[in-house]
Amino acid sequence: MIRARRIWVTALAVLTVVGASPGWAQAQQTSGLRPSATAVDDGDGLPADWSITGEGAARKLVWRSDERVPMGDARVEFYAGDRLLGRPAPAKDGRTFRLGLDGVPLDAPQELQVRAAGRRLDAPGSASAGERPAVTVPRRLPANPVDPGKPGAYRTVTGEYGLDPVRLPGFAEPVEMRAVVVAPQGAQGRRPLALFLHGRHSTCYSPQGETGGEWPCAAGTKPIPSHRGYLRDQRLLASQGYVTVSISANGVNGQDWSAEDGGAQARSSLVRRHLARWAGWSADPGTAPAAVRKAPRADLSRVLLVGHSRGGEGVNRAAMDSLYPPPAAQDGYRGPVRWHIRGTVLIGPTIFGQNPVPDVPSTTILPGCDGDVSDLQGEVYVDGTRQVSRGAALHSAVYMVGANHNYFNTEWTPGQAVAPAEDDFWHDEEEPDPVCSPGTRTRLTADQQHRAGATYIAAAARLFVARDDRVRPLLDGSGRRAPSADPARVLTHAVGARRGAGLLPDGKVTVSGGRLCSAVHPSSAAACLASETAGTSPHFARWETDREPGRRAVALRWSAAGSPVRVRPERPLSLTGAKALALRVIVPPNSTGTRLDVSVTDTAGRRRTLGRVEVDGLPGTDRTASYWAREVRVPIGADDAAAVGLGHIGSLELTPRTRSGRAWLMDAWAWRPGTPQVREAPLARVDVGRLTVKEGDSGERTYRVPVQVSGRGGGQVRLFVTDPATDNVTDRLVTVRPGAQGIDVPVKVEGNTRYGDDLTHDVFVKAVRTSVVGSHLGGVTAENDDPAPTIGVTPVANRVTEGEPLKWRVTLSAAADVEVGGVLAVVPVTDGRELSSKDVDPAWLRDASGASPDPERPLSEVEGLSLWVSVLPGRTSAEVTVPTRKDALAEPAESVRLRLSDDSGEPVPGAPVVTGTVVDAS
Fold first, then answer.
1. Helix (H, G, I), strand (E, B), or coil: what is residue 472?
2. DSSP string across 739-769
3. CA distance linking residue 547 with residue 4, whole number of Å
4. pLDDT, tens digit (0-9, with 9 covering 90-100), for 506-520
5. In terms of C-beta density within 10 A (0-12 exposed, 13-18 middle, 19 or more buried), how is residue 274 classed?
6. Which of 87, 433, 439, 790 has the fewest CB neighbours in a 10 Å radius?
7. Residue 263, class by beta-carbon neighbours within 10 Å (0-12 exposed, 13-18 middle, 19+ buried)?
8. Ramachandran region of residue 577, left (φ > 0), alpha (ψ -120 to 50) or beta?
9. How far is the CA of 862 from the CAs of 138, 676, 859, 903, in angstroms?
């Protein structure tokens, strides 16, 4: 995706030293990086805790945390400012992360950042208590007449099964087939099946309390039983008549860090392998494991999938793959689909591909204090389904105030887990977060959170599988609560079901009195929320690019009541038969009482005020994603139908009735109660692959990005293409149809004989209409196939009078397309006297090592001291200097010896030495 401009290598190429044998090579500093010690490139200082290691194409940018970074579900990402550099690989120590530098520019190394779901890991920021507004607590909602959190009539039975592990594409090690089953005792007939999939967590633990992410687990360690973390939820569902199974996915967690989709396809394959086994056991119970034989037969026509974190993205992909099969080469399940997925529950989920399944109903639980997937990107499972397909499937978001990420799983909860566990929301005792720190009035305890989670899982099961519409008001924004979830404050909104005509700012609309804003845009003037805003919005979670067409909202800002904002769609909307107009409106966190009059005007010019809504903000701080839309409704009655032509509404008008404020309109819908039966539409499916080629030595070759279009219908997607030379992203709408010519993305690769980086042309895709996207990211990678240039060094001034700089010229045997650099370590002098810390320029010493000249000591004993040299792209030489200091002392000749350092900062054995000598000025 990005063209590299710099390379630091160790033992990359042979250096010829005049008067010495060949063998010196480039290196890079491995301790906390400081500004360059050479005048050639003294702007290349990097922050502390960063280093560059490796050689040739294997060189890496490394960040080491002062503390262990818990293995979680959000992707750890390296940024330079707001530009994504890439996603690093974690080391076993849980503190070190490495990113390959092939194709990664470091134009602004001083701006390096580490983020996960938008949250800084290297410098967690926090506003002072004086800057934070008072926290508001949502009002307690009326109780729903039916409470799905109450246990049912059945007693339950628990057991486990373990089958032979399976091979999944892209993974070197087999993945376990292990699960825990909880089922109702004495239930008659076939019972619906609920399958649980945990998220990405540490895979193994030792008796000494250490955890790691390797797979398989090393000798002396045990697998962490993450799949046993939902037993409470399973027991509740089993008591209500469901057969439940929670499957283990440690083998995916231990190998998914390098998967472009974060392991979504692998998790889908694992889920469907288990479902296939259950289908077989249901048909022939005698072949089932003992734990399954103790349960009633499962009804595979009624399946609910429950996924936590990356498990949420995994079950979403499993639902997609069950309806629209993936390309065989990337799939780990090849058999028939003998099940029907009626709905999904997604708990604090990731959605790296932003590719929800529009025709499978879903409930997404958004934990308000999520410290892992902290941007609450799972909101896209709701927003990303709008007008993609028929719209009959309900897609609900459940915002749970005070819930963190981990406590939905008891095996991730301190005091309940068998392995070490922790609260994922980072707590600063000196500056506690007023919403999410333990002990605040909004933060839930682990038991409160798990009970609330189980209740809403059961609500989704009852609505999607049992088709009991009485629980719908708990999920669809109707403003009802389940008493079993008390004291949790739980808020909901939804799209789909019996909502009719919708007004979406994503489409062709005109706005007066307000502005159309972009969900993702680098400009504060264009973005819905400026980057400097304290706190974030789940609706505006960033994707693969820093600007994204087709994701918008209407922004309102007013300083006096009565200033209307009018939104006019391209075509008139029909509200005929609607019981209400439902709007999803964001207001700032901790705000209360924002009042808006809602009016419509028909195409004949007749205007009608339908009513007034009042919107309160969620409790929030700079560390929460609390800019979240509340669903509000204004009723539509017979008098409204008499006053205005409801079948031909030409515009919607919002008029603030409070003195000042801000709000964002996400959408508006013609609302009717009820949950219709969902019939999956024949949609086109798009999967993007990756082609890797050699660049060659000459000429230009054209390759095409492998894009596969399958499915049963035509559709429209938005295609994004990156320019690796400029990092710019272009996009266009593309119509796709199985069997027809699909998406054609030609990529030209120019061969040469110059050493450089791999060149990656990335392509990514998002569904727009009547389509789904499986593998969203791919492209063409042109590998560098030229050897690194050999490096020579000749003295320019290697014997000088004190006060003059020592100089060497570093030369390349040929120019390279990237910046080639290395590091010389200072090693002890073996013959004569060594230059000391007071014999060199003190400013240079501080820049090169961060050290003071005092106390005086030999340069080889100055911690972290090394000399950097870099040769710019297209050039063949550079100088490295050591500025010396003149003093009044009479001294013998003093020397400094420099030698190649390895990845650990130690000299490479056998490497030639560069020597410089300084003689007394007298």
1. helix
2. TS-----EEEEE--SS----EEEEEEEEEEE
3. 22
4. 989 999 999 999 999
5. buried
6. 439
7. buried
8. left
9. 58, 74, 5, 18
